[in-house]
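Catalogue entry: protein
Contents: sequence, fold tokens
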Amino acid sequence: MRMANTSQPDEPAGRPPRVPRRDLATITPGERDPLGILAKQNESRYQALVPLRIERMSVSPFTFYRGTAAIMAADQARDPHSGILVASCGDAHLSNFGFYASPQRTLLFDLNDFDEAAWAPWEWDVKRLVTSIVIGGRATDRKKSVIEEAARGAVAAYVAGLHEAAAKSPLERYYSHFDPQDTHRNFDKASRKALKLTLADAERRTGPRAARRLTEPGTDGKLRFIETPPAMTQVEPELVAHLEHNYEAYRRSAYVDIRALLSQYTVEDIARRAVGVGSVGTRCFVALLRDREGGLFILQVKEAARSVLEEYGGIRQPDAVEEGIAESGQGNRVVGLQRVLQAYSDPFLGHMRGPLGDYYVRQFHDMKGSVDVEQLEDAPFIRYARVCARVLARAHSQSPRFAEVVDYVGKGRRVTDSIVAWSYDYADVSLADYRAFIAAQQP
């Protein structure tokens, strides 16, 4: 099966006149319906898990923010933007950076969530990141001066990352990546200890280990996932049949060496598993694979819906992306853009589609871990925000119009002022949305 190229558009769609950098601070007033957007999303989700989504989003203003990428995209759609489209994460908040295993089984630090990935103005990702710094800093009762330094430092680090990347050739930019030790060196002694524990935990989080912990023998002797409602539940027989029928489509979408490897495994069981905050209620499954000798590992199958950057942000996607989606579904978009944005991606990435939905597939766990920013002292929090911004700059530097972004930001002073101002204002908007959300849950 031919895989459409979703990563390099012939010509990114839509080039409005370039706006002054000061206008990036503008939040455009107008009618908003944030709770209506969340309700619309909930309509298409697995209804038994909608209460869990509400519960997780209700914990704090930051957990609420994590689940509101669609609301933010709808708001950004009204604001002036640079018009320079790059391959974008779509949900680049602080908790969507973390550790994972490279194909060589070493730990890397990078973006690690791509459900909303699409082509969009470069500053939309930066604004989502900086707003998460402001909201996250407030949620942990940090001083205003600390939050200000973290927010401004992140934009400055992003700009510095752009200029550093501009000094390299496209090939050098492609091979660049972030070692976890680079993150480690930015922390104080206490935070390094916490990070060391995080890394050790990530290294233990492997697919085979998860398979042993999450399964038990059934009455027929086969292994079955252990039900722990609502997080882990068995799947309806017709849905199991649908996923098994489309498993071959996933195999064909993977690299040829992975296809050969997967041919040595059979699917032993499939279960529904709730994940994250923003993804709760979407169709997400885990598939237990077993080889002839009894070796196990797990694949995660996640629903791929339209990116909020397109659906709510109104950004028309390049023809190559639209063709890939038409040919093999939204999973094609997620996989293609993840491979662009990450330095090294999961070799098991693939996609499939059927009458019940589009999906992308990846390894489950595979040394994934993240930094708990609430546990960081102020100085490491500031430095961690900068590290995430540099990672985002590396991701954006893979796009064909990257040089235009570098020219647009210039030395970065005006861009920093504008993006930080916008992010503070939007943090206030998000807080008001959170309070309305909590009030709506009251009897």
About this structure: DSSP finds 18 helices and twelve strands in the chain.
